[in-house]
Amino acid sequence: MKTVLPDRQQSLLQWVSQATGINTFGVKVRLRGNDLHILCEGTECPQRWRTLSDLLQALQQTDVDLLTSKEEPSIYQVFVYGRRKGEQRPKWCHRVYLNQIDKHLEQVQQALLEDSEKSKQSAGALIVSNESLARQGNPEAIARYLSETLSMLGVSVQAKIKLYKPKNSQPEENRLWIFCLSSYSPDASLLAEPIAQKLRYLKLSGYQDAVIVSQVIGETAPDWLLRVDLTPPEVMLKEWARWGDVQAIARLLTEVLSLKVAVQADLKESTLHIFCTPAYDPLGIAPIPDKVMCLEAILPQLEGIAPQGILAATVYGQKAGDNQPTWIDWLALPATKHPAFAISPLDLANTGDQPAIVFLLERLLNPDLDWRLLTGGIRVLLLKKNDLLHIMCDAPVCPGREQVASKITQFIRQLKIPGIMGIRVYGRRAGNKEPFWHYGLDFEHRQRLVPEATPEFAATSKYFNELVSSETNEPILRPDLTTQEVQTFVTEVARDWIATASATAKKFLLRSQLFTETHQSAEANPEAQGLKVALVWGTLGLLLTLQTDWVLGQIITRATPTNIPPSSSGQKASLTSGKNQSQKTTFFTSTSKTKSPPNQSSVFNASEFTQSDDTSIKNLAAAPLKEKATSTAILLAARSQMPSFNVRQLDEQLALYKQRLARTGSPPDVLIIGSSRALRGVDPAALSKALAAQGYPNIDVFNFGINGATAQVVDFLVRHVLEPSELPKIIIWADGARAFNGGREDITFKSIAASAGYKQALQKTPIAANSNDLPENAVNSPEEKTSEEKPEISTYEAVNQSLSQALASLSTSYQNRDQIKTLLQKQLFTLSPNQTVASEKQSTDGTSDESISRQAVDFDGFLPLSIRFNPARYYQKHSRVSGNYDNDYKSFQVEGQQDAACQELLQFAQSQKISLVFVNMPLTEDYLDPVRKQYEQQFQQYMLRLATNPKFIYRDLSQQWIKTNDYFSDPSHLNRFGAYEVSKKLANDPMIPWPVK
Fold first, then answer.
1. Better-scored residue on pLDDT, 237 or 604
2. Burial class of 594 by CB neighbour count within 10 A (0 to 12, 13 to 18, 19+)
3. Burial of 199 (C-beta count, 10 Å sphere; 0-12/13-18/19+)
4. How far apart are CA 578 and CA 850, in angstroms?
5. Chain segment 351-367, per-residue pLDDT in tens
């Protein structure tokens, strides 16, 4: 006996060497999943049974899990190999189950005895397979059974049984949990169906379902979850046979007849024809099935099943291939006595019977009965809300939209269910509540004032109490107050406030003696007294005006620096923004690696944003920062031959894009467009890397995000600014509801429409005269305005203009009225406690002068921000603007000019064979107040209607990381860490048709 009990600190290699007596240079070990592989080699191949005997005795006395680290998975089985040094393949291999070491020892001892006696007797102990033990329901045996397959993929398995308490007061049930641990993140489609097949093959009893949890080693949150339906195949067959499915009935009857008789069935009208033939008759000499035996087996089954819509059955006995049966019998079924069973499933479905609709849909989506019994197939859940029928399809692998949506739509349309005006179809992986994709179709025109929210489906069809949403701490309105009561209360408060304000203003005006009440007599207010009062007040007003003008002039003189030369009209606004020379130098050299003076503490981090006050910030994954391209973009835009679009960022992004085209000679494969949410929210480098990991190497991605870009801006950019040869294969439009608000003023597009670049783009790509394609301010272009006849000016207006010009030349503040206006706005904005006069863009889009000076895109057009959103600090510097006062949602409506632009863009993308993917970008919980949530739901319904177009793909990430503030730079914009996660999620999205090179 060479075994020495090892110390806990000894390695597996040393332990195997001590146990077998083989030098450590001749031993190699490797741990994959739950399997330990041991290779023993020497100048001569080690003896199989002697080596195994030593190793098994050591295993019997040692817990091998103690020799591995706590992070390593448990070891279920050991593979031992033996070979001669220098050879490529092992000479022998032996598998050892650690839960049956005694039986393995008995087998090895018998083999050693045979070698010594040179006996030819067959030996031994019987090794029970893991499959046989797993069928008994033991969780450890189930884990060993699954690890036989998954260990080859580097996935270790653990199994546990947890009690589950249904919400409908039913007794507790056992639920099987399978934990798959790995050093990487395996795709769910890779493991889902193999695990489902192996678990269902066991035919476990006592379990309704199993939950598969995939988790990367070292992480706390699971990567994905999967539910496997463990309903036995016999139960599934009986469920379908109960609804009159002919194939299921034939399969059940074949099993009842002990596979000695082959059963075929055919349904004609309401009679089931059953043909009984010999199960195996290659020579044609097998006897015809016995009539009495067949009828005694078939009749009880059919009476117990009571198939729906089948009144009778005719049973035939014959040989295979015979035209005439040897015997015939006729059976009456329960439907003849019970009228409820006589109605066919199709007729029940036409009346709106939901169980019948579920059966017909499941039969439609699972044409292969064997595959459904093997994996559980596609299951269907129904939910009727008002005049819509919501249909959820789930399976171990999420069913494709193209696979099921058209079939379901066509089938439901043919049913003509009363009260149903449309359907909404969803697809998801079994076990999830949220759908992976949506599809909707209205059979008739529907007018809805309130958009329908996507309903929640239970994870299983059994527990329908899970349809209730989980409780949250979000405040809600009082349900006992009606809309009329609220309106009455608001009206009364407003009336009282108006009356009080009117009375106060009236008293003030009467005391000034410039106004009198309407019922006052003329004698009480003589004309002489009126002239005196007017003269006094007029003089005071003139003195006050002069004094105010002088004070404002002094303020402007002090506020304006004297060392800044006046800017020339030919320079860019960004280069003449009132900064001194040192500030300009800092702006252009912000990407340099110059260190701060040692006596001055740096308050900026690597991305030129102020550092956080937190001393301990958790590290988040993100793509490496790339070289900034701001200075290059400014120079390229200044040298461009194309006129400006009055939007500096559009000019610079276009210049970078043109430079990319000139360098590569071809457009990028993927173009990201949208507003600042796209500019900051999708990282081209991270997306390209993630796509390479998914099997799409060398995908070129460019981010063409523009602050404030709406649907009109995106449509103009794609259809008129870029040439057809400059367009990509796929466009990722990353934005949200704000870009489609047709009720607010589109400031960005109006600025573009008033530019020389807009005029040249329209001349280069003329468009049809359609009022929906042009903005309101573009209808009257600058040329039309100059060609219009000027209106005649009256004598009074001419005198008024001359007097105004004369007074303006004497005033010290009139020439600087724009600066005064800006200064007053800043002061009022600072003093106001509720800063609702400005849109939230001022604080979140980063369009202020101070933020622009710190922002810099890279050469991929992406703006990486490292700042993390912290509500406690953020709202000390910025106002909390609610949805009621957010100008981006002002008069919110999706119909109008933005919708027209979106439709034009969609048609253009189809004509150019460009895939268009719209991504609803993530938002924070702070941002989604009740008002914005209502608008977001309205926008969701609008997107679902657009998603009926096969060339338009809609992906909703708006609530993906609603509570993960570290992924945001402000309430509605991602930072580079969030952009990294979004890019990874998009790359792993199976619904997006990524280009293949």
1. 237
2. exposed
3. buried
4. 12
5. 989 999 999 999 999 99
pLDDT for position 741: 87
| Count of other CB atoms within 10 angstroms of residue 891 | 11
- By residue count, the chain amounts to 997
Would the pLDDT of 581 be above 50? no
- Average of pLDDT values for 231-240? 89
Give strand ranges (E) for 47-132.
Answer: 77-84, 92-97
Q: Check pLDDT > 60 for residue 668.
A: yes
Residue type for position 770: N
With the C-alpha atoms ordered 679, 683, 685, 689, is the resulting torsion angle positive or negative?
negative
Alpha helix segments (H runs only) across 226-353:
233-242, 246-256, 291-305, 339-342, 345-350
Residue 399 has pLDDT above 80, yes or no: yes
Contact (Cβ atoms closer than 8 angstroms) between residue 725 and residue 664: no
Q: Is 463 helix (H, G, I), strand (E, B) or coil?
A: coil
Using 50, 70 and 90 to split pLDDT, how confident is the model at 876? confident
Alpha helices in 262-400 (DSSP H): 291-305, 339-342, 345-350, 354-365, 369-375
**pTM (2 d.p.):** 0.42
Kindly tell me if the per-residue pLDDT of 560 is higher than 80.
no
3-state secondary structure 411-432: HHHHHCCCCCCEEEEEEEECCC
| β-strands 77-84, 27-32 pairing | unpaired
Burial 444-478 (b: 16+ CB within 10 A, else e): eeeeeeebbebbbbbbbebeeebeeeeeeeeeeee
Other beta carbons within 10 angstroms of residue 374's beta carbon come to 15
Q: State in Å, rounded, how far the first CA of the chain is from the last one.
A: 62
Give the span between the Cα atoms of 651 and 466, in whole angstroms. 52
Q: 927: Cβ–Cβ under 8 A, 6 or more apart, which residues?
A: 971, 972
The set of residues, in sequence order, having a beta carbon less than 8 Å from that of 527 and lying 6+ positions away, is none
The per-residue pLDDT for 274 is 92
Question: 377: alpha, beta or left, given left = phi > 0 and alpha = psi -120 to 50?
Answer: left
Q: Which two tokens stand for residue 712?
A: 């009109």
pLDDT at position 505: 79
Beta-bridge partners for 327: 317
Which pair of tokens denotes residue 534? Answer: 């007017």
Quick one: residue 927, left, alpha or beta (phi over 0 = left, psi -120 to 50 = alpha)?
Answer: alpha
Beta bridge partners of 457: none
Mutual orientation of helices 101-117 and 48-61 as an angle, nearest 10°?
150
Q: Kindly report the CA angle at 896 between 908 and 959, in degrees rounded to 5?
A: 80
118-125 average pLDDT score: 47
- For the chain, count helices (H), then strands (E): 34, 23
Proportion of the chain in helix, strand, coil states, percent, rounded to 5:
45, 15, 40
Q: How far apart (Å, rounded) are the C-alpha atoms in residues 783 and 755?
A: 12
pLDDT in tens, 438-474: 888 888 876 554 445 555 555 444 433 333 233 334 3
Nearest to 211 by CA among 389, 430, 382, 6: 430
Residue 87 pLDDT > 60: yes
The count of other CB atoms within 10 Å of the CB of residue 735 is 23
**pLDDT reading at 488 higher than 90:** no
Query: What is the Cα–Cα distance from 228 to 375, expressed in whole angstroms?
Result: 8
- The C-alpha angle with vertex 924 and arms to 919 and 927, in degrees rounded to 5, equals 105
Closest to 383 measured CA to CA, from 330, 457, 323, 452? 457
> φ, ψ for residue 753 (rounded to 5)?
-65, -20
Q: How far is CA 782 from CA 65, 582, 760, 788, in A?
A: 81, 39, 13, 10
Contact 902, 753 (CB under 8 A): no
What distance separates the 2 farthest-apart alpha carbons in the chain? 146
What pLDDT, on the 0 to 100 scale, is given for residue 620?
84
